[in-house]
Write a structure and sequence with these properties.
4 helices; elongated; 89 residues; 3 strands; mainly alpha; single chain
Length: 89
């Protein structure tokens, strides 16, 4: 199982304390937690999209230099992330 699957499961189900290699999730009492595969897939897309954006610090720097130089570096970078990673519906 990919790290992204485990991360998505842990975010979606705060009571889960472990996820095994097969994607089975467990809560503290040792009981298996049923996970919604569609919700996990959606969360993975959302996490991938969020991580594709430059950091806020980098974005602020782009905006500063765009204002100084009359360029559109920030707008172009954000547009690329949005086009490469469409928002899930």
């Amino acid at each position: 199982m990919a790290h992204a699957d485990k991360e998505a499961i842990m975010i979606l189900y705060p009571d889960v304390i472990d996820v095994d290699a097969n994607g089975k999730a467990w809560i503290s009492s040792g009981v298996e937690k049923t996970v919604d595969a569609a919700a996990v897939a959606l969360k993975k897309v959302q996490l991938k999209r969020a991580s594709a954006y430059p950091s806020l610090q980098e974005q602020m720097d782009m905006q500063y230099w765009d204002s100084v130089n009359g360029t559109t570096t920030w707008k172009d970078a954000i547009a690329k992330v949005k086009s490469d990673n469409p928002k899930p519906s």
